[in-house]
Amino acid sequence: MTGNHRRGPLAWHPSGDMLAAAGRSQIDILGRDGARQWTLTGHSLGKDEDRRIVDLAFSPDGALLASLSTERTVRLWRIREGACEAAQVIDLGDLMPASLSFSPDGTELAVAGATGPVQIWSVYDVERIRTVEAPEGSPLGVAHLSDGSLVISSYEPAALAVVDSSGAVRARPSPAAARPYGLSVSPEDVVAVSGESDDTVTVWDVHGGQHRDLPPARGSAYRVQWAHDGSALYVVSWTFGVLRWDGTQWSRLQMP
Fold first, then answer.
1. 101: which residues sit within 8 A by CB, 6+ positions away?
2. What confidence tens digit (pLDDT) does each residue in 171-223 have?
3. Is residue 60 within 8 Å of residue 104, measured between CB atoms?
4. Where would I find the H helices in the chain?
5. Which of 20, 102, 183, 252 lies at a 20 to 30 A Cα distance from 237?
6. Of all helices (H) and strands (E), which one includes residue 109?
7. Hey, what long-range contacts does 88-97 have (CB within 8 A, 24 or more apart)?
């Protein structure tokens, strides 16, 4: 069963009808009613307990799911005609990956990790087409704004950056987390960033300019994920499983 103890990343399907939830080595695709539709396996993690799936992302059209693991690969899964099938595998080389994001048009996939610049891959050709350097620190998180700009979170020092297609960097707040590991952007370009092992979550409205630190998430806020419509924010807590922020308080998400 997929329980609230699961500690991997989450990803909402753009339709809102499916939720992908990962454990260490497998991914469960749940329907709106919480029933498990598919279980995906294929990451070669072996017996190394430090290896795990670290991020998930659906393409904007919902036809692909990308899963990222510390074996330094991205696996693509094709969703069509009531089935979810394994597709291409992307070899990330020496990058120790932490985060990934589809571009708004679904043609590119950005992958961030602390051992190098952000890698940008063509989804259809499965070729690396360029890299993007973090303005400061080592990159941990990456996400796209609606205009295609990249949001990059990094550490040493802890920082957020927005880099547009020309390479220009926009003004941004400092995250509360010392290691801003989790990163998600809502449809309205509201950025949420969480720490790797603490309980801090910073929310930043890119267009309005306002930002604030939410009340501490119970236990921790290892990963953060907006609902498909931006109506709620979810975090994965190492202690309490999946937590939901409804705009006023945190509550524990009951998953089957």
1. 57, 109, 110, 142, 143, 144, 150
2. 788 898 989 989 999 999 999 999 887 899 999 999 999 999 999 998 888 88
3. yes
4. none
5. 102
6. strand 108-113
7. 88/126, 90/121, 90/126, 92/119, 95/119, 96/70, 96/72, 97/54, 97/55, 97/68, 97/69, 97/70, 97/72
